[in-house]
Specification:
The chain is about 85% helix and about 0% strand. The protein is mainly alpha-helical. InterPro entries: DUF6768 (IPR046659).
């Protein structure tokens, strides 16, 4: 895959490279905070809040499980803790899939940009 990227990089003009560099891949933190904006931002906010609450409730359940002397109560608190931590993991997976979808959309937009640049170059050559 790197060979193809190198070939594409060599074929680009300096102007094309500068344009693509401005629209480069943002860092992880920028991608993570970008999830909270856009048309699906509300769903990510809900998932994030549910995940935080589930984590806190799971930590409380673990604390209660350790603090109780009754075996049956400890098992009940432990099962509750496991279910709450699974819910936390599910919300993180939901947000991760949205981050990956946003990454794919950025790549598609980058390809569209390259195609439009190619089309503009071809139109300029035909006009000469």
């Amino acid at each position: 895959m790197n060979n193809v990227d190198d070939l594409i990089g060599r074929a680009l003009t300096d102007e094309d490279r500068a344009l693509l560099a401005r629209h480069g891949e943002p860092g992880y933190v920028a991608q993570a905070f970008g999830l909270f904006r856009g048309p699906m931002g509300w769903a990510v906010w809900v998932a994030y809040i549910v995940g935080v609450l589930a984590f806190l409730a799971g930590a409380y359940a673990v604390w209660q499980m350790v603090a109780t002397a009754d075996l049956l109560s400890a098992v009940k608190w432990g099962v509750g803790a496991v279910l709450l931590f699974q819910l936390t993991t599910m919300t993180k997976g939901f947000m991760g899939s949205h981050m990956e979808a946003n990454r794919m959309l950025r790549e598609l937009k980058r390809v569209e940009l390259q195609l439009s640049l190619l089309r503009a170059d071809r139109a300029g050559e035909q006009g000469r």
